[in-house]
Design brief:
By secondary structure, the chain is α+β, with helices and mostly antiparallel strands. A hairpin with a 2-residue loop joins strand 1 and strand 2.
Amino acid sequence: MSEIELRVGGKTYLMACGPGEEARLMQLGRMVDAKLQAMRGNLSALDSQNLLFAALLLADELDEARSGKIRSGISDDTLAPQLELLAEALENCANTLESALATP
């Protein structure tokens, strides 16, 4: 098991991942951070809510890709697995954040 530091929303999170998955997780973290940056005017005071909202926006993009509503140069076969990995990474980030906030 490897550990990496992800910087998302101005905070650093220590994340565990499988060997060789470090670069992919970093890429997914950058996607989440970019989504949060795009939401900059609509952020709440709670990091967990912001991460949840970013996850919902990314899940919406995944759902649209799966249902064929989005047509781009990227095939659904390529996009859907990437968005699923991103959703999983977001869940891990949210769990890590919730654990950190719950610890006094």
